[in-house]
Amino acid sequence: MSNQNYIKLFSPEKYLLNAVIIFVITTLFYFFGASLRLIDELSLFWPLNAVLAAVFVRNPFLNRSVYYFVCYSAMVVYDAFTTHWGWQSAIINLSNMVFIIVVARLLLRYSRTQDESNWALNAFNLFYTCLIGSILSSLLGSIGSTGPSSDYRQFLSLFTDWFGEQFSTGVLMMPFLLMATWPQWKTLPDFHISKIYPLLGVIVSVIASVAIGGAGSLAFPLPALIWCAIRYPLPVTALVTLLTGGIEIILLSNSIIAIHPNKPLVVSEMFSARLGIATMAICPLIVSVSVDAINRLIKQTSLRADYDYLTGIYSRSGLYEALKNKAPLMHQPDQKICVMLLDIDYFKRINDNYGHECGDIVLAAFARRLSQTVGNEGLVARLGGEEFVVACSTRSEEEGYAFAEQIRKDIELTAFRYQQQTLFITVSIGLAATSIENQTLLDTFNSQLAQADKYLYLSKRNGRNQTSMASLNECVIKV
Ligand SMILES: Nc1nc2c(ncn2[C@@H]2O[C@H](COP(=O)(O)OP(=O)(O)OP(=O)(O)O)[C@@H](O)[C@H]2O)c(=O)[nH]1
């Protein structure tokens, strides 16, 4: 739960404030739920339990008996003031608590076994958690409402009604409540008309459900919702799914979506339709969670491929990508592409004398120093082992040579630290520079890299700690 955009109301140290906020939220949503009961169309929803379960999941430190008790007390106090207090009220509110605690505890237990990015997101898990929470809560609630001596049919009708309400509200609301973040206005992608097509698809399919009717019409929005899951971020998909499911339930209960033309729904059909809508709502979420996971994986994999793990600078493939992006900048007619191949001298001795860990630290520090020296003048990558490359554009070979020498001297004078030791290293450089003619930047880079390799060999052969390149008359410039 490290995401900084999450809405934070609670804090592990502020016990009293937490208790007050829980009391206020419970009272507000109890009032809200009771007010919905007065409007026929909205009486099918009881959002309190899903909201509180989400509060407890998002703030695991709140999962203590004392906060559960505050929550329960708020419900009972509300009842005492607005209706009447009695054992029925005590049991019905207890059934609300059963849903809240079971769902929160199960989701938290599951999230502990998952990596953080996946916490409570597994839509299947949410589905089964809401199912278990709704069954237990509805059982207790129905027994509490009818009493032990009531007739079986009355109990069953109350149970299905209660269960349908808890389950559909839970499955529709919980994903959004668990995922909601403050929008990051600054980082929102640019708007393009094509982005609203999936949403339009949902609206059109709900209209089609009303126009065509019949049992199948409940599933009409599914393809458009899955389209939303592919195009929109997870919280937006969760919100669109919640609104679509909620609207479908309202339209259905008012026979605006007519399963049987000219015949209102009987209770059992309403129960089945609500379950159907909740089941449908979970599908786009499964897709959305999968798309999210795939995108993370692609990002992670490309990060791994494009950056060298040890030094954090570009790998060879990262350098190629960066060169592709830089092509327009480097492709200037009066500029030359300059490629320097750098190889640390006698690096094996560092490993042999101070250990492999020291070798790693020196490689990372060397890469940092090299990147600092090159700055915005070029691109730096590790090709492997103790071999690095710098690609830059210069006006002439001489300018490239001067730059390579500046790097070489800077490394020679840099003190590298390992534990209490100070180490000095030198580097040999092979350099090649040419103007881009009829080749692509990547082809030019590759041909110059092969040239630079030859001159690196020359630098090594001639005693190391020097830069070699082809001068105009193909002789070796030696320092
Ligand atoms: N610590 C560490 N060592 C590495 C890494 N990659 C390669 N090496 C070591 O780098 C050393 C390279 O040795 P050589 O190729 O013989 O070259 P050198 O000792 O630098 O000598 P010259 O290049 O000829 O000056 C080997 O000992 C490799 O094990 C790495 O990631 N970490």
From TrEMBL:
Broad class of enzyme this protein falls into: transferase
InterPro entries found in the cross-reference section: Diguanylate_Cyclase (IPR050469), GGDEF_dom (IPR000160), Nucleotide_cyclase (IPR029787), Rev_trsase/Diguanyl_cyclase (IPR043128)
Membrane-traversing stretches: 15-32, 44-61, 91-108, 120-143, 163-185, 197-220, 232-259, 271-291
Keywords: GTP-binding, Membrane, Nucleotide-binding, Nucleotidyltransferase, Transferase, Transmembrane, Transmembrane helix
Residue stretches making up the GGDEF domain: 335-472
Keyword Iron-sulfur among record annotations: no
Pathway(s) of this molecule: Purine metabolism; 3',5'-cyclic di-GMP biosynthesis
Cofactor: Mg(2+)
Protein name as annotated: diguanylate cyclase
Protein species of origin: Buttiauxella selenatireducens
Lineage of origin: Bacteria, Pseudomonadati, Pseudomonadota, Gammaproteobacteria, Enterobacterales
